[in-house]
Amino acid sequence: MSTRESFNPESYELDKSFRLTRFTELKGTGCKVPQDVLQKLLESLQENHFQEDEQFLGAVMPRLGIGMDTCVIPLRHGGLSLVQTTDYIYPIVDDPYMMGRIACANVLSDLYAMGVTECDNMLMLLGISNKMTDRERDKVMPLIIQGFKDAAEEAGTSVTGGQTVLNPWIVLGGVATTVCQPNEFIMPDNAVPGDVLVLTKPLGTQVAVAVHQWLDIPEKWNKIKLVVTQEDVELAYQEAMMNMARLNRTAAGLMHTFNAHAATDITGFGILGHAQNLAKQQRNEVSFVIHNLPVLAKMAAVSKACGNMFGLMHGTCPETSGTKAVRTDPPLAKGNRPSGEDAPGRGLTADAPSTRSQRAAAARA
């Protein structure tokens, strides 16, 4: 997907000051309920990690429920499993078409974290802001829908329905569903000591989109203009937007090629939060030691200049349609990085020592 020209509201008969991101007070996946609070709220829904099904002669069928990227539910017939996920976000970029693509990629990313490459069906969830004028609604929402549809088609699936409502803020999301044979998905629980961790995209999207909005807010721009130029911000914003709209589908296929043992996508809880969640799922006694964070150019300096308000170098900065963290055998991270839309790598490695004391994942930036 090539770089797009900046969205020009006047080309769509909108006021030149129109900004999609003004139709929400929270950005992207920065709307997440804190992880510890969420886990307590969802305790009553938690299913056992594995379930024995008598239809399959006592064989243990994998079952994944609350807390990870998707649910994996054994079906009653044929030894198949339902793999399903749902997600939604608020506007994070001002280009409606790209925002639609990002919303779709964000939903699909949860399937790809399971090594699933084929999605059978998608639904779209759309909240139209009741603060939009009729002209804004009629010009902007079709662009968002088209972006979502195009990303779904790129993923080899289609949007067959969903739900559309009025809402104070714009809401964009959906449901992705597929039915898989056991060899078509990879349970995220088989990390072993000696595995390495690779990422499919750099971190820092939340910082990049936030500081891009600060270009229109002098009091905020003045705080960072000594460490970053307007050109730096524009470049980081464009790269962040293209990265968020890029599917992790190729990486999902490569998980099978390179015998990946576990994976998760990095979104609202930041790399540290998702690493901790993934560590808890493992069968073996392992810890995830992160010693290098690949970040969009200049965004680490911006984060530091802001007093680490974003938590980027602490591993707690939210990402939207973020990178996928894959634990695999060392060869993939040692030069066998394929070229393509989302080649894993970008310099992040990790160890997995078999000591319980480090299991919560120590992030070392």
From TrEMBL:
Q: Which residues form the PurM-like C-terminal domain?
A: 193-299
As for subcellular location, the record says: Cell membrane; Nucleus membrane
Q: What class of enzyme is it?
A: transferase
Q: Which InterPro entries match?
A: PurM-like_C_dom, PurM-like_C_sf, PurM-like_N, PurM-like_N_sf, SPS/SelD
Q: Which residues form the signal peptide?
A: none
- The organism's place on the tree of life at top rank: Eukaryota
GO MF, one annotated term: metal ion binding
Q: Which reaction does it catalyse?
A: hydrogenselenide + ATP + H2O = selenophosphate + AMP + phosphate + 2 H(+)
Q: Does the keyword Magnesium apply?
A: yes
Q: Which Pfam families match?
A: AIRS, AIRS_C
Q: PurM-like N-terminal domain: which residues?
A: 69-174
Q: How does it sit in the membrane?
A: Peripheral membrane protein
Which residues fall in a coiled-coil region?
none
Principal cellular location given in the protein's record: membrane
What are the start and end residues of every segment in region (Disordered)? 317-365
Q: Name one GO cellular component term.
A: plasma membrane
Cofactor dependence: Mg(2+)
Q: What is its EC number?
A: 2.7.9.3
- Which GO annotations describe the biological process of this protein? selenocysteine biosynthetic process
Q: Could you tell me the keywords of this UniProt record? A: ATP-binding, Cell membrane, Kinase, Magnesium, Membrane, Metal-binding, Nucleotide-binding, Nucleus, Selenium, Transferase
* Function, as annotated: Synthesizes selenophosphate from selenide and ATP.
The UniProt entry, under PANTHER family, shows:
SELENIDE, WATER DIKINASE, SELENIDE, WATER DIKINASE 1
In the record, the note on similarity to other proteins reads: Belongs to the selenophosphate synthase 1 family. Class II subfamily.
Q: What is this protein called?
A: Selenide, water dikinase 1
- Specify the species: Panthera leo
